[in-house]
Amino acid sequence: LHGHFLIWLEGGMNPSDVHKRMKEDDSFKRRYFRFYESVSMHHLPDAKPPNFDATRYEPRVELPPVPPVPDSDGRLPQDILNEWDDVMRTEIYMCGETLQRHTCRAVCHKYGNDNRCRFLFPHETVEASYFDPESNTVALLCRDPTINWFNPYILVFCRHNHDIRCILSGKSAKAAMFYITDYITKMDMKTNQML
Q1: Position 151 in a domain
Q2: Which of 27, 41, 105, 146 has the largest count of CB atoms under 10 Å?
Q3: Residue 176 lies in a domain
């Protein structure tokens, strides 16, 4: 299974407006980073189960865990929530270690990339998300340079590798468009070469 999808957020701001707000409003910047760090992760939780072996675990042949069902008032007791949180953290760890950890293979060095991974691994670690107002760079938290960006819910419930990206510039949007178009059409000539 291989797919691409784009998600537009209702009320989402264009990159120029995001950069402007980040320069002017520290509260906005904190909320922005808190939101993106909640939907996109680049590290695994510290929840390795005893005797776990990623080489023997195949999450795609197991059903995901079943979330607890709230009572008729829509509530869940705190102990049930805590237990579910532990289950999710363990599932994120096991699925992430098996599906999201990058190990360079021959495909990483196609097209003359003999000395470096064409998927740009290892990624640069970023200890805390930040915004550089001079370059308009938005860098999100990245604690593990060999883990693909992922969403914990997509990972646990779909149980497949994915690479989630937050598109924060027109250049990134154009690169994503070219990549998806090239992948879908599978033409010998790349889209950017035709234009």
Answers
A1: yes
A2: 41
A3: yes
In 3-state terms, what secondary structure has residue 28?
A: helix
For the chain, the distance separating the N- and C-terminal CA atoms, rounded to the nearest angstrom, is 30
Q: Is residue 96 part of a domain?
A: yes
Q: Is 108 helix (H, G, I), strand (E, B) or coil?
A: helix
Amino acid present at 97: E
In a domain, 143, yes or no: yes
Extract the tokens encoding 179: 């990549």
Contact call for residues 180 and 171 (beta carbons, < 8 A):
no
- Cis amide bond preceding 45, omega within 30: no
Question: Domain range holding 130?
Answer: 15-65+77-186
Q: What is the residue-level pLDDT of the chain in tens, covering all 195 positions?
A: 566 777 777 887 888 899 999 999 999 999 999 999 999 999 999 988 888 988 899 999 999 999 999 999 999 999 999 999 999 999 999 999 999 999 998 888 888 777 888 888 999 999 999 999 999 889 999 999 999 999 999 999 999 999 888 877 777 778 778 877 887 777 665 555 655
Distance of CA 64 to the CA centre of its chain: 19
Tokens encoding 64: 């995901």
Half-sphere exposure for 163 (CA within 13 Å, toward CB)? 14
